[in-house]
Specification:
The protein is an alpha/beta fold. Helix content is 43%, strand content 21%. The radius of gyration is 18 Å and the shape is globular. It binds adenosine-5'-diphosphate and N-acetyl-L-glutamyl 5-phosphate. The site of adenosine-5'-diphosphate has 19 residues, from loops. It comes from Sulfurovum lithotrophicum.
Length: 283
């Protein structure tokens, strides 16, 4: 049995990290690939509530690619990805919005609420937060890039001591436009830069960035990351993720981490211990 003094020591070990990150904004990209079991989802919610209660300002940007693909298959709608990004027809856009803004956003909000943190779920359409533009309409349809961010609505949520939970959909200034489907990794990095976050973490379904022998790479510079993209070691869904890390670092975020969302409490392990998990990318 664990002695009581060991519990106290564990808490004291976390103290320097709590001091370092207290009052700091931390963007957590919660990928669809990490939203697997009910147990992991509960642990994710506990981690966010704990970080919030010790004074950090977590901002959740969620994905849900796997759920979108599942519903599209159920409905018999074909879907394709190019370089890790979905091609979004008007029909697909409707489903993307239903799954991201409807199902997943509200599920995360409820989980946080049940564990004791006030959470407010929005998409980029709310309060004029994210305005999008087509990435390449001919080839990608309503897949978008973020053209403009007005951080006010999210800052207001944080000032109200609540946790913002953001679905990666951007609005448009054109009347009647369905909006844009934004890759959640790229949305997270733009949001981290606009909100001046200290740290960004991507929870996914691999231990981090893996090398050709499938071994975890614990630390990478931007140059090393670019080289791994060039030689094809980094592919598919990992491409927008490392691009997002690089964009965040160039925009002033101090550290970007890609960590395994399938590992129990990986968020707390990364933020509150000196061990660190996954891949850390720094300037
Ligand atoms: N070098 C690499 N290291 C780790 N994962 C990689 C690498 N290259 C490609 N991948 C793929 O990227 C996937 C993660 O991206 P994705 O499926 O989009 O996750 P998420 O839903 O979390 O955004 C991994 O499951 C893996 O298949
Ligand atoms: C343009 C684009 O690819 N959008 C993504 C949005 C969701 C997402 O990014 O989810 P994950 O983080 O779980 O992959 C999609 O349609 O799947």
């Amino acid at each position: 049995m664990k002695h009581k003094i060991d519990v106290v020591k564990t808490l004291l070990d976390a103290l320097p990290f709590i001091k370092k990150f207290s009052n700091e904004k931390i963007v957590v990209k919660y990928g669809g690939a990490a939203q697997t079991s009910a147990e992991l989802k509960e642990q994710f919610a506990q981690d966010i509530v704990l970080l919030h209660l010790v004074g950090m300002k977590p901002i959740i940007v969620h994905g849900g690619g796997k759920s979108i693909t599942r519903l599209l298959a159920d409905l018999g709608v074909d879907t394709t990805f190019v370089d890790g990004q979905r091609v979004t027809t008007k029909e697909v856009m409707r489903i993307v919005e239903m799954v991201l803004s409807g199902e997943i956003n509200k599920e995360i909000v409820s989980l946080l609420d049940n564990h004791g943190a006030k959470a407010i779920g929005i998409s980029g359409k709310d309060g004029g937060f994210l305005k999008g533009m087509p990435k390449d309409f001919e080839n990608f349809g309503y897949t978008g890039l973020i053209e403009d961010i007005d951080p006010e609505i999210v800052d207001n949520i944080i000032d109200d001591d609540a946790v913002p939970v953001i679905a990666p959909i951007a609005g448009s200034n054109i009347l009647g436009h369905p909006g844009f489907n934004i890759n959640a990794d790229l949305a997270a990095s733009r949001i981290a830069v606009a909100l001046e976050a200290r740290k960004i973490l991507f929870l996914t379904d691999t231990p981090g960035v893996l090398d050709k022998e499938m071994e975890l790479i614990t630390n990478l510079s931007i140059e090393q990351t670019e080289a791994l993209k060039e030689d094809g070691t980094i592919q598919g869904g990992m491409v927008p993720k490392v691009d997002a890390c690089i964009e965040a670092l160039r925009g002033g975020v101090k550290k970007a981490h890609i960590i395994d969302g399938r590992v129990e409490h990986s968020l707390l392990l990364e933020i509150l211990t000196s061990t660190g998990v996954g891949t850390c990318i720094e300037l």
